[in-house]
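Hi support team,

I've been running sequence recovery on a batch of backbones for a student project. Most finish fine, but this one hangs at about 90% for roughly twenty minutes before it completes. I'm not sure whether the input is malformed or the queue is just slow. I've pasted the structure tokens below so you can try to reproduce it. Let me know if you need the job ID as well.

Thanks,
M.K.
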């Protein structure tokens, strides 16, 4: 059992940038799975056929091409609600940095995301992130974020980890080691910080309810496997 859960925890890979928009048509969710999947696929094909200017998030914000709200939702992601004044292909690169307000953690994007924005339509885009402040509070859905400049070395680290397709849980540990000097004792004292990554990774292979129990029962064992993992070491050594 321990070997199985450890393998699952360390097996999660990254991936290349994807073009997607989350929850664009909520009504489709009520349809049978095969119908909603087909509808979404057809929608993507139609939308990709529309001529679009390709811009980065920094460029779009600087030019006033988009307006956006960025909301929290734990340590693993932020939600960007963006409205463009033209049809755009928006690139949100790994290393994009969002500053939280008050006592909540800042977040850095860990996986480049490409979103299709239709003129005048608010799009919901989920961005994979890592927390950059281990000792601050975890942001909730009511917390807002603003685009800000990342510390250069942190940004370089995250971009490198994305290029090497390092697993999200391993990426998060390396980010915390960089920003907060986090050690094993810190991660043992606050299992709530790393637990969401482990449960989500496990849930790709096993039922979520079972994963929550497995992670809780084997947390320190899995943590040791994760800390012993050499993935991403080349990025730290640069």
């Amino acid at each position: 059992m321990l070997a199985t859960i450890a393998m699952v925890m360390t097996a999660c890979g990254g991936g290349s940038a994807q073009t997607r928009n989350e929850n664009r048509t909520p009504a489709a969710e009520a349809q049978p799975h095969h119908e909603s999947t087909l509808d979404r696929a057809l929608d993507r094909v139609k939308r990709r056929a529309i001529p679009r200017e390709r811009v980065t998030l920094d460029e779009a914000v600087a030019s006033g091409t988009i307006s956006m709200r960025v909301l929290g939702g734990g340590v693993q992601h932020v939600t960007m609600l963006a409205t463009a004044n033209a049809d755009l292909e928006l690139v949100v690169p790994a290393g994009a940095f969002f500053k939280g307000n008050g006592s909540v953690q800042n977040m850095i994007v860990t996986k480049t995301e490409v979103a299709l924005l239709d003129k005048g339509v608010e799009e919901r885009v989920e961005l994979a992130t890592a927390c950059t402040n281990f000792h601050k509070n975890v942001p909730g859905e009511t917390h807002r974020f603003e685009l800000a400049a990342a510390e250069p070395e942190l940004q370089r680290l995250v971009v490198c980890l994305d290029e090497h397709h390092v697993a999200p849980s391993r990426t998060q540990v390396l980010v915390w080691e960089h920003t907060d000097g986090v050690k094993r004792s810190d991660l043992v004292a606050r299992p709530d910080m790393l637990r969401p990554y482990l449960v989500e990774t496990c849930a790709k292979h096993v039922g979520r309810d079972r994963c929550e129990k497995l992670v809780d029962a084997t947390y320190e064992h899995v943590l040791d496997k994760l800390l012993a993992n050499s993935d991403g070491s080349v990025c730290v050594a640069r």
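--
Follow-up from support: It reproduced on our side and the slowdown came from queue contention, not your input. The CA atoms of residues 99 and 215 lie 30 Å apart. No action needed from you.
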